C-alpha cells in the first residue's frame, strides 16, 4: 500500500494549474493545463522492463492545445459516454471543447466548440449523467474579481437542434469569485447537484423543467435551489470534490482544513468530519474507526463547533413533519460520535476480561455466555 | 493566501475506517453477511408463530457472532504487546459488549415481543448475562472453610436475590443456618418465602391473573413477617425481606452490587410488578434511571439507547445507535432484522424501509473500500431495491483490477446481474491495458468478451501486422480456439481463418488449404491490403510437385492478382520497389506454370 513517484517531468513553461485523468477505457491518459496558455494530453508508454522493475513509467505528450491566448485555468475530460472529449477554460473567458475522433490516436484532436463566457474562467465541470434524458452539460465558474454582481457560475448545455453549446442557466446568487465547481455523480436522479467553491461552500440542485421547444434552441430550463451553504472554512474555499456515489462532498479552504459534508434524510447537509492538512482529524472530529470511543471528554461542545451555527443533531426529523417523496429522504446523518461507553481507566490490564459497558469506572469481567443460553 | 511551506509538499493519503481491516472484525462481517443473506432469502417461508421463532433465531445468530468476535478481540487484547494496540482491542471489546447488550434487549422487546409474564423472565436472563460476574465472588465464598463467615457472604446472597436466583440464594442460606444455630429459624422462614415466591411461567400453566393473585398473597405474607420483626435481629436478612417486598430504598442500598440502572429496573419489577406489560416498561425505566443516577450524573449514550428501547421508540434507538457508532454495521443489520419483523412499516415512519435501505447502502459502501470485503458488499446492494443497483454500478467500476483473476471475478458479478455497460467497460479497460503491454492475446480475449467489434478489429490488425513483420503468430492457442466468437468482426474472422490456413498447410492438407486461401480473397474476407501476402502464401502451393489448384482456382488467383495490380496507377508501379515487382512477376510465372500443368492433368482421363 505504499505510494512512490513513478514519473516526474518538466514540460510547461509556466505553472501547471490542473491535471486530470481520462477514463481508463482510453488507456492511461492525462491532461494538464498551464499558465503558459497551453493544455497538453499525455499517454503513459509501457517502457523497458528495466524501468518497470525500478517502478518508473514514461509519459509521452500526444498533443498540445495552443488555441488559448491566455492562461488555461482548467481542463477536464468529458464523461466517457460522450466519447473522447475534453474541455478547457481560460483566463480570457473562453471555453474550448476538443474531440479525438479516433480514440486510438491521441495526437489528433479537433476543436469542436468555442464558448465565450464573457468572464474570466477558473474552473469547469462536466455533468457525469449518462441518462438519455440529459444532454451534455458543462458548468463554468469564474473568478473575475472586478466589482460587479454578475453570476459567476454559468451552465452550458449542448443542443441537438443547433449542434452547439449554449448558455442554459446562470446562478445569479453566486457573485463572489468561484475557485472550483463540481457536478455530483448522478445515481439516476432526474435533477443535478452542483457544488461550488467560492467564499464559502455551496451546494445547488438544478431540476430540469420540461424542455420548452419554443425557447432558444430547445434548451432546458432549470429550477435552482440552494441545498446548503457553509462558511465553516471561514475563508476562501478552493476545491470541492465528490465521492463515488455523490453522497459525500469534500471541500478545502484557506483555513488549511478539509471538510466533509453529507446530507441526511431531509436534505439537510451537515459536516461529518474535519481533517487538517496532513490528514489527521481535528480533535476526534472524524470517525476514527468502526467502533469509535473517543476517550471521554465533553463532545457536545465539539459537535457545536463542528456544525458552526447549526444546532444539535437533528438527523431524523420529528415525526409530525413528514416530507415524503424526497429523493434524499433515505439519507441519515453522520456525525462524530460521542463516546459510547466510558473507558475504564483503572482496569487491571492483566485481569482484563470483557469490560462491561457500564458507567462506573469499575472493571469487572463479563459473564461468559454458557453454551445454551437457555433463553 | 498562505505561502506554501516547502516542507509540506507532500500528498497525504487518508483513509476512513481503517479498523475494518482488523482480522477479528472481518470475521464478524463475513459471518453476519451469511446470516443477512439467509434472512433475505427466507422471506415468506413461514408465517405467524413459526416466523417469529425463525426471526428470534436469526437474532440469536447475530448475537452469537458478536460474542464470538468479542472473544477473538479479547484474545487479541490479551496477547497484544503494544500498549496502544492492547488499548484499542480492549475498547473494541467494550463496544462489542455494548452492542450485544443493546441487541439482546431489542430482541426481547421487538423481535420476540415478549408479553407480560415471559417479559420479566427474559429481562432477568438479560440482566444476569450482562451484569458483573459474581462467579469469582461465589467461588471464593463457597470454597472457603466457613462460607457463612466470609466477609462477602451476604453480598453474594444479595446478588442472587437481586438477580432472582432464588435457588442459589437458598443454598447459601442453608449454609448460614447450619453454621449459625441462632439464625436457623430466620433462615427457615426466609428460605420458605423464597421457595414460595411466585414467578411468571413460560408455558400456559397459569394465567396472569392467577399469578397476580398468588403473588399478592405471598407479598402479604412477607409483609407480615417483616412487620412482626421476625428478621429484626439480622440486618442482612431483614434487608433481604425488604427487597422481596420491593422496597425501593432497600434495593437502592445495594447499588454497588447492581452497578446499572437497568439492573435496578429489572429487580424492581421482579419484586413489585412481575406481570409488567411491555408498554408499562417506559415509566419504570425512566424512574429507575432517575432514582439510580440520583442526579449525580447524566445519562450516557448507552443509557439513552436502552431507554429509547424501553420506550419502544425504535426510530430513536436506531438514530442514537447511528450517532454512537461510527460504522454502520450494527444499525444496518439490526434495522434490517426489525424491518423483517415488519416493525418499520408502521404508518408513523415515512421512511421506514428507506431507512433500512439507507443504512444497508452506507454499510455496503464502506465495505467496498476493502480489497476483499467488497464482495460482501455486492450482496447487500442486491437487497436494496431502490438504489442498490446504481450504487453497485458505481462502486464496482472503481474496484482496482490489479490481476486478471480479480477482473474476472468482478466480471462474473456484473454478468450475473446483466450489468452490460459495466461488463463492456471493464473488458475495455483490461483490453487497453493488455494492448499497451503488447499482450495481444489477452487484449483480444478481453475484446471478445466485451463484444467490442471495433477493438477486436484493431487487435486483429496488430496480429496481422506482427505476422507480416515476424512471420509467425503469437497466441496461437487463442486464435485456434476462437470458435463462433470469430464472427465478432470481419478482421477477426479473417485472422482466424488465416491461421486455419497456416494450420492446414502445416498438416499438409494442401488442397483444403488452397481452397481456404482462395476463399479468403474471393469472399472478401481478407482486407485488400493483405492480398499480396496471401498470394505470396500461395506460391509454395503453386510450386508443389503435385498440382493443388484446379484450373478454375488458378484463373481466380490470376484475376485476384490482376485486380490487385490494376488498382495501382502507373506512377505507383514505377515507385514500387524491386521486391514488389519481382514478387508479382514470380506470381505470374507460377500461376502460368500451374495453369499449364493443371490443364494437362484435367485433360487426361482418370484411372487409366
UniProtKB/TrEMBL annotation, chain A:
<keyword id="KW-0813">Transport</keyword>
<comment type="function">
    <text>Component of the Nup107-160 subcomplex of the nuclear pore complex (NPC). The Nup107-160 subcomplex is required for the assembly of a functional NPC. The Nup107-160 subcomplex is also required for normal kinetochore microtubule attachment, mitotic progression and chromosome segregation. This subunit plays a role in recruitment of the Nup107-160 subcomplex to the kinetochore.</text>
</comment>
<keyword id="KW-0995">Kinetochore</keyword>
<dbReference type="InterPro" id="IPR001680">
    <property type="entry name" value="WD40_rpt"/>
</dbReference>
<dbReference type="GO" id="GO:0005765">
    <property type="term" value="C:lysosomal membrane"/>
</dbReference>
<dbReference type="GO" id="GO:1904263">
    <property type="term" value="P:positive regulation of TORC1 signaling"/>
</dbReference>
<keyword id="KW-0811">Translocation</keyword>
<feature type="repeat" description="WD">
    <location>
        <begin position="230"/>
        <end position="262"/>
    </location>
</feature>
<keyword id="KW-0906">Nuclear pore complex</keyword>
<dbReference type="GO" id="GO:0031080">
    <property type="term" value="C:nuclear pore outer ring"/>
</dbReference>
<keyword id="KW-0677">Repeat</keyword>
<comment type="similarity">
    <text>Belongs to the WD repeat SEC13 family.</text>
</comment>
<dbReference type="InterPro" id="IPR037363">
    <property type="entry name" value="Sec13/Seh1_fam"/>
</dbReference>
<dbReference type="GO" id="GO:0000776">
    <property type="term" value="C:kinetochore"/>
</dbReference>
<dbReference type="GO" id="GO:0005198">
    <property type="term" value="F:structural molecule activity"/>
</dbReference>
<dbReference type="GO" id="GO:0007059">
    <property type="term" value="P:chromosome segregation"/>
</dbReference>
<dbReference type="InterPro" id="IPR036322">
    <property type="entry name" value="WD40_repeat_dom_sf"/>
</dbReference>
<keyword id="KW-0539">Nucleus</keyword>
<keyword id="KW-0137">Centromere</keyword>
<keyword id="KW-0159">Chromosome partition</keyword>
<dbReference type="Pfam" id="PF00400">
    <property type="entry name" value="WD40"/>
</dbReference>
<keyword id="KW-0653">Protein transport</keyword>
Automatic annotation (TrEMBL), chain B:
<keyword id="KW-0906">Nuclear pore complex</keyword>
<keyword id="KW-0811">Translocation</keyword>
<keyword id="KW-0813">Transport</keyword>
<dbReference type="GO" id="GO:0031080">
    <property type="term" value="C:nuclear pore outer ring"/>
</dbReference>
<keyword id="KW-0472">Membrane</keyword>
<protein>
    <recommendedName>
        <fullName>Nuclear pore complex protein Nup85</fullName>
    </recommendedName>
</protein>
<keyword id="KW-0539">Nucleus</keyword>
<dbReference type="GO" id="GO:0017056">
    <property type="term" value="F:structural constituent of nuclear pore"/>
</dbReference>
<keyword id="KW-0653">Protein transport</keyword>
<dbReference type="InterPro" id="IPR011502">
    <property type="entry name" value="Nucleoporin_Nup85"/>
</dbReference>
<comment type="subunit">
    <text>Component of the nuclear pore complex (NPC).</text>
</comment>
<keyword id="KW-0509">mRNA transport</keyword>
<comment type="function">
    <text>Functions as a component of the nuclear pore complex (NPC).</text>
</comment>
<dbReference type="GO" id="GO:0031965">
    <property type="term" value="C:nuclear membrane"/>
</dbReference>
<dbReference type="GO" id="GO:0006606">
    <property type="term" value="P:protein import into nucleus"/>
</dbReference>
<dbReference type="GO" id="GO:0006406">
    <property type="term" value="P:mRNA export from nucleus"/>
</dbReference>
<comment type="similarity">
    <text>Belongs to the nucleoporin Nup85 family.</text>
</comment>
<dbReference type="GO" id="GO:0045893">
    <property type="term" value="P:positive regulation of DNA-templated transcription"/>
</dbReference>
<dbReference type="Pfam" id="PF07575">
    <property type="entry name" value="Nucleopor_Nup85"/>
</dbReference>
Amino acid at each position: 500500500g505504499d505510494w512512490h513517484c513513478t514519473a516526474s517531468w518538466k514540460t510547461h513553461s509556466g505553472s501547471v494549474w490542473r491535471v486530470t485523468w481520462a477514463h481508463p477505457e482510453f488507456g492511461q491518459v492525462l491532461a494538464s493545463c498551464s499558465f503558459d496558455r497551453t493544455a497538453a494530453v499525455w499517454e503513459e508508454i509501457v517502457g523497458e522492463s528495466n524501468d518497470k522493475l525500478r517502478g518508473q513509467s514514461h509519459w509521452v505528450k500526444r498533443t498540445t492545445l495552443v488555441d488559448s491566448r491566455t492562461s488555461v485555468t482548467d481542463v477536464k475530460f468529458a464523461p466517457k459516454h460522450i466519447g473522447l472529449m475534453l474541455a478547457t477554460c481560460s483566463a480570457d473567458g473562453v471555453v474550448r471543447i476538443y474531440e479525438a475522433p479516433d480514440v486510438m490516436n491521441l495526437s489528433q484532436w479537433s476543436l469542436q466548440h468555442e464558448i465565450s463566457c464573457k468572464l474570466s474562467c477558473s474552473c469547469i465541470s462536466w455533468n457525469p449523467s449518462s441518462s438519455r434524458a440529459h444532454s451534455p452539460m458543462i458548468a463554468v465558474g469564474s473568478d473575475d474579481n472586478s466589482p460587479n454582481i454578475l453570476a459567476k457560475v454559468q451552465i452550458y448545455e449542448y443542443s441537438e437542434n443547433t449542434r452547439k453549446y449554449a448558455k442554459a442557466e446562470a446562478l445569479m446568487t453566486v457573485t463572489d469569485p468561484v475557485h472550483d465547481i463540481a457536478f455530483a455523480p448522478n445515481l439516476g436522479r432526474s435533477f443535478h447537484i452542483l457544488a461550488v467553491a467560492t467564499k464559502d461552500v455551496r451546494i445547488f440542485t438544478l431540476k430540469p423543467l420540461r424542455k420548452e421547444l419554443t425557447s432558444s434552441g430547445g434548451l432546458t430550463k432549470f429550477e435552482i435551489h440552494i441545498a446548503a451553504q457553509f462558511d465553516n472554512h471561514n475563508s476562501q474555499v478552493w476545491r470541492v470534490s465528490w465521492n463515488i456515489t455523490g453522497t459525500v462532498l469534500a471541500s478545502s479552504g484557506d483555513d488549511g482544513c478539509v471538510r466533509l459534508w453529507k446530507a441526511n434524510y431531509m436534505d439537510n447537509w451537515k459536516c461529518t468530519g474535519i481533517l487538517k492538512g496532513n490528514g489527521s482529524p481535528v480533535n476526534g472530529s472524524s470517525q476514527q474507526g468502526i467502533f469509535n470511543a473517543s476517550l471521554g471528554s465533553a463532545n457536545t461542545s465539539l459537535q457545536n463547533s463542528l456544525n458552526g451555527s447549526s444546532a444539535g443533531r437533528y438527523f431524523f426529523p420529528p415525526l409530525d413533519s413528514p416530507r415524503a417523496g424526497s429523493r434524499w429522504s433515505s439519507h441519515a446523518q453522520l456525525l462524530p460520535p460521542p463516546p459510547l461507553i466510558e473507558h475504564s481507566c483503572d482496569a487491571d490490564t492483566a485481569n482484563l476480561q470483557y469490560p462491561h459497558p457500564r458507567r462506573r469506572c469499575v472493571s469487572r469481567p463479563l459473564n461468559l455466555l454458557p453454551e445454551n443460553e437457555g433463553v | 493566501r498562505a505561502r506554501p511551506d516547502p516542507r509540506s509538499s507532500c500528498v497525504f493519503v487518508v483513509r476512513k475506517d481503517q479498523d475494518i481491516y482488523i482480522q477479528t472484525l472481518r470475521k464478524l462481517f463475513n459471518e453476519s453477511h451469511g446470516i443477512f443473506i439467509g434472512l433475505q432469502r427466507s422471506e415468506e417461508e413461514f408465517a405467524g408463530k413459526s416466523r417469529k421463532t425463525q426471526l428470534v433465531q436469526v437474532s440469536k445468530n447475530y448475537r452469537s457472532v458478536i460474542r464470538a468476535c468479542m472473544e477473538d478481540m479479547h484474545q487479541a487484547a490479551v496477547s497484544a504487546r503494544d500498549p496502544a494496540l492492547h488499548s484499542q482491542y480492549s475498547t473494541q471489546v467494550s463496544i462489542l459488549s455494548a452492542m450485544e447488550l443493546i441487541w439482546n434487549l431489542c430482541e426481547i422487546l421487538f423481535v420476540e415481543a415478549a408479553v407480560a409474564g415471559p417479559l420479566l423472565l427474559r429481562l432477568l436472563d438479560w440482566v444476569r448475562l450482562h451484569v458483573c460476574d459474581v462467579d469469582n465472588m461465589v467461588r471464593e465464598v463457597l470454597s472457603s472453610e466457613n462460607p457463612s463467615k466470609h466477609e462477602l457472604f451476604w453480598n453474594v446472597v444479595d446478588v442472587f436475590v437481586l438477580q432472582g436466583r432464588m435457588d442459589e440464594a437458598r443454598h447459601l442460606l442453608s449454609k448460614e443456618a447450619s453454621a449459625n444455630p441462632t439464625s436457623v429459624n430466620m433462615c427457615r422462614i426466609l428460605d420458605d418465602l423464597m421457595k414460595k415466591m411466585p414467578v411468571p411461567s413460560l408455558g400456559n400453566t397459569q394465567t396472569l391473573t392467577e399469578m397476580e393473585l398468588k403473588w399478592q398473597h405471598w407479598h402479604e405474607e412477607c409483609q407480615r413477617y417483616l412487620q412482626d420483626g421476625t428478621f429484626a435481629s439480622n440486618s442482612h436478612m431483614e434487608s433481604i425481606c425488604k427487597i422481596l417486598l420491593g422496597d425501593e430504598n432497600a434495593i437502592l442500598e445495594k447499588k454497588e452490587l447492581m452497578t446499572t440502572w437497568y439492573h435496578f429496573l429489572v429487580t424492581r419489577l421482579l419484586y413489585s410488578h412481575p406481570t409488567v406489560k411491555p408498554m408499562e416498561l417506559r415509566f419504570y425505566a425512566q424512574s429507575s434511571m432517575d432514582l439510580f443516577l440520583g442526579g449525580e450524573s447524566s445519562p450516557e449514550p448507552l443509557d439513552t439507547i436502552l431507554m429509547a428501547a424501553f420506550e419502544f421508540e425504535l426510530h430513536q434507538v436506531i438514530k442514537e445507535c447511528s450517532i454512537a457508532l461510527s460504522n454502520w454495521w450494527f444499525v444496518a443489520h439490526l434495522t434490517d432484522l426489525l424491518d423483517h419483523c415488519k416493525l418499520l412499516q408502521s404508518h408513523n415512519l415515512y421512511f421506514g424501509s428507506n431507512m433500512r435501505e439507507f443504512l444497508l447502502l452506507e454499510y455496503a459502501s464502506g465495505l467496498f473500500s476493502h480489497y476483499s470485503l467488497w464482495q460482501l458488499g455486492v450482496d447487500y446492494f442486491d437487497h436494496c431495491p431502490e438504489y442498490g443497483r446504481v450504487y453497485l454500478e458505481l462502486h464496482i467500476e472503481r474496484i482496482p483490477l490489479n490481476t486478471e483473476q480479480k477482473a474476472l471475478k468482478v466480471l462474473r458479478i456484473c454478468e450475473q446481474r446483466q450489468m452490460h455497460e459495466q461488463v463492456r467497460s471493464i473488458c475495455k479497460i483490461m483490453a487497453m491495458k493488455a494492448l499497451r503491454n503488447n499482450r495481444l492475446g489477452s487484449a483480444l480475449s478481453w475484446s471478445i468478451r466485451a463484444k467490442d467489434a471495433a477493438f477486436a478489429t484493431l487487435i486483429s490488425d496488430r496480429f496481422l501486422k506482427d505476422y507480416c513483420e515476424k512471420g509467425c503468430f503469437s497466441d496461437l492457442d487463442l486464435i485456434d480456439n476462437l470458435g463462433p466468437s470469430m464472427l465478432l468482426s470481419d478482421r477477426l474472422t479473417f485472422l482466424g481463418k488465416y491461421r486455419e490456413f497456416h494450420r492446414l498447410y502445416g498438416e499438409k492438407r494442401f488442397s483444403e488449404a488452397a481452397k481456404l486461401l482462395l476463399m479468403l480473397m474471393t469472399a472478401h474476407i481478407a482486407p485488400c491490403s493483405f492480398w499480396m501476402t496471401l498470394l505470396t502464401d500461395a506460391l509454395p502451393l503453386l510450386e508443389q510437385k503435385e498440382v493443388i489448384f484446379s484450373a478454375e482456382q488458378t484463373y481466380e488467383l490470376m484475376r485476384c492478382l490482376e485486380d490487385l495490380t490494376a488498382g495501382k496507377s502507373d506512377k505507383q508501379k514505377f515507385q514500387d520497389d524491386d521486391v514488389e515487382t519481382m514478387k508479382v512477376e514470380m506470381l505470374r510465372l507460377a500461376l502460368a506454370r500451374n495453369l499449364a500443368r493443371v490443364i494437362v492433368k484435367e485433360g487426361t482421363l482418370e484411372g487409366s
